[in-house]
Amino acid sequence: MLYAHAASWPVGFARLVERVREVAPTHQTAAALLRDFNRPDGVAKRDAERVAAGAREDAAAYQPAQQIEQFAVTGPRAIARARQLGPAVVDYFGHAMLRLEEAASIGILEATVHLLDLRRALDLPTGGARHRLGPHRCAARADDAAG
Question: What is the pTM of this model?
Answer without folding.
Answer: 0.74
